Amino acid sequence: MNSASHPFDRDKRYHLKKFYPVGLVNALRPGKGMRVRVERRTIALFMDNNKIYAIQNNCPHQNADLADGYIKDEKVYCSMHHWAFELETGAYSFNPKIFIKTFDVKIKDDVIFVGIDILEKCNKTCDK
Question: 46 lies in a domain?
Answer without folding.
Answer: yes
